[in-house]
Write a structure and sequence with these properties.
Layout: H1 13-23, H2 28-35, H3 41-49, H4 55-65, H5 69-74, H6 77-88, H7 93-99, H8 107-142
Helix pairs in contact: 1-3, 1-4, 2-3
Length: 143
């Protein structure tokens, strides 16, 4: 006999739609516009409060947000945070390298190099313009 101390958790579709929309930087008005003329910001707000969303609307929203329908249906914030927490607390070298990335160059050196290159380009452009002015001056003097 197996009993679980953790109650069955229901996935809140509307809240998940809101999370994905916000992660993608889309406003409610933008989602309403993409859903069609009958949709308003207020209707999207009501949709995001619904625990269960109809399959056809769920598919439309998923298509607009460019995420799988199952992602909206099954996204569980607690599980996602648990994965992230375990990843960042891991002492596995593959995750440590991603978190503690140390570049092999000094970013300030690259910035200075870029500045010097821009300076050289500007000097070449200036010289080219001076040559054009001299050529035009000679042409005017010949007439």
């Amino acid at each position: 006999m197996s009993t679980s101390s953790e109650p069955t958790k229901h996935i809140h579709h509307g809240r998940n739609i809101k999370r994905f929309r916000e992660m993608l930087g889309i406003k409610q008005e933008g989602l309403a516009y993409e859903l069609g003329e009958e949709w308003t910001q207020k209707r999207v707000s009501v949709l995001e409060q619904k625990e269960t969303v109809e399959q056809d609307i769920l598919e439309q929203v998923a298509k607009i947000l460019k995420v799988p329908t199952t992602a909206i249906k099954n996204f569980d914030e607690d599980k996602a945070l648990n994965v992230i927490s375990n990843t960042f607390n891991s002492h596995d070298s593959s995750t440590m390298n991603a978190v503690n990335f140390q570049p092999k160059f000094n970013p300030l050196d690259k910035l200075i190099e870029s500045h010097e290159e821009n300076k050289k380009l500007y000097e070449r452009l200036l010289k080219s313009e001076q040559e054009k002015v001299e050529l035009l001056q000679r042409l005017l003097d010949q007439k």
